[in-house]
Design goal:
The protein is α/β, with parallel strands linked by helices. Helices cover 39% and strands 9% of the residues. The chain has a 4-stranded parallel beta sheet with strand order 2-1-3-4, with helices on one face. α6 (123-131) links the parallel β1 (103-107) and β2. α1 (2-19) crosses α4 and α5 (80-94) crosses α6.
C-alpha cells in the first residue's frame, strides 16, 4: 500500500515539474483536507517496500493473474533515482555548468533518514547515472558505514577522509533528510551563486 501511494505522488511530482508547479505547495494545500494521506515523493529503497511487492507479484503471476497496479508502482519508484539524476543534469546544463569533471556533493546514501541501513538504497542509482556524465561525486552521510557502502556498492563515502565544510561544489543534492542536515546552510557548499541545489526530500527552505 505504501509503495503504491509513494508511486502516485512520484508521478504527480513528475507532472508538476513539467507544468512548473511546486509539488510541496500542492501537497500542503491538499493537506488541508481532513482525509488527505500525507505521502511525499522520493526514492523507495530498503529491504521491505522496495522488495516485497515483487514476491506478491510473482506469486500472482504463477497462479495466473497479472498484477498491473503493483508492478506499475514498482516501475515508477524504481525509476526515480535515474530521474533525479537527469533532472540535476538538466539544471546544470541550463546554468551552463560543464558536466565533465564538475563537482557534486551528495548528502545522504542510506535508504531512509536517521538510519544506518543502506540495503537496497536507490541513491546509488543517482550516483551511477551521474558518473556516466563524468561528474565527480562526493558523498557524505554521517549515519552510513563507509566500509559497508564500499563492500555493497563499490562507492566511496567521504566520512572523515575529508572535511566537506572546506570544499565547494557546482551542485548539491540533498538525498536523505537526516536531522544533521536540517541545520546545514547549503549555500556554503556552492562554488558560485550559479550552483544547483536539488532537494529530493522537499525539506529545505524554498529560498
Amino acid at each position: 500500500q505504501r509503495d503504491i501511494n509513494i508511486a502516485f505522488v512520484n508521478e504527480l511530482a513528475k507532472i508538476f515539474n513539467i507544468l512548473d508547479i511546486n509539488t510541496q505547495d500542492v501537497l500542503e494545500a491538499a493537506g488541508t483536507k481532513w482525509n488527505f494521506l500525507p505521502f511525499k515523493p522520493g526514492l523507495v529503497g530498503g529491504h521491505c517496500i522496495g522488495v516485497d511487492p515483487y514476491y506478491l507479484a510473482q506469486k500472482a503471476i504463477e497462479d495466473g493473474y497479472h498484477p498491473e497496479i503493483i508492478l506499475a508502482g514498482r516501475r515508477m519508484n524504481d525509476s526515480m533515482g535515474e530521474y533525479v539524476a537527469s533532472e540535476v543534469v538538466k539544471l546544470m546544463i541550463k546554468k551552463e555548468i560543464v558536466l565533465h569533471k564538475a563537482e557534486l556533493l551528495l548528502l545522504g546514501i542510506t535508504f531512509k533518514e536517521n538510519c544506518p541501513d543502506v540495503r537496497n538504497t536507490k541513491i546509488v542509482d543517482i550516483v551511477h547515472s551521474l558518473k556516466e556524465y563524468g561528474i565527480n561525486i562526493t558523498i557524505y552521510d554521517p549515519w552510513a558505514n563507509a566500509d559497508k557502502v564500499m563492500h555493497e556498492y563499490g562507492v566511496i563515502l567521504n566520512n572523515g577522509e575529508m572535511n566537506i565544510l572546506f570544499y565547494q561544489f557546482d551542485a548539491v543534492i540533498l538525498a536523505v533528510a537526516h536531522n544533521e542536515f536540517n541545520s546545514i546552510n547549503i549555500r556554503r557548499f556552492l562554488a558560485t551563486n550559479n550552483g544547483v541545489v536539488y532537494d529530493v526530500k522537499g525539506v529545505l527552505n524554498k529560498e
